[in-house]
Amino acid sequence: MSNTKNEFLTLREKELANEQTGLSFELDNLLNFDKEQIKTLAQSIVYDVQENHLDADKTLIYAIKGEEFFKSVVANVRPIMAGKGLPKGGLEMYGAKMIEKNNPDGYKFEVCNDSEWDALNTQLMDIKAKMKVREAFLKTLTEPMATMDGEIINPPAITYGALNIAVTLT
Fold it and tell me: Which of 55, 110, 114, 139 is the most buried (most CB within 10 A)?
């Protein structure tokens, strides 16, 4: 038996031996859920956290670890599926449809040899570089400043998004 399989079995035994957290579910059950059921399950977990039936700290860590787990599975299995190929028209099963799809291509205008585009691009890059320098200066202002022309330059406004919790897996 491979190390990975042994580790999985050991982890699974520990999981079964631990108390139920209210968040445990069998991975096989997800195959039978449709999009609406998944949404409902997530909403019920949020409700349980709001009603203090589930611990918010543990639930967030559980969800982040699950997200990391599933991202890794998707990232590693998707290329395997792409290599296998799908039947013409795709494959539909368990309430999901898989189709082969080329990612959108981009455009490389640098190769056009268009002098007008090249000139505009050069101007744009120059302006972006000048703006970066000016923004770096403006960030140093802590109070309004008067220029030699009498113009009053204010420090930039600092905007903050919603308060968030950063979680780092160790």
Answer: 55
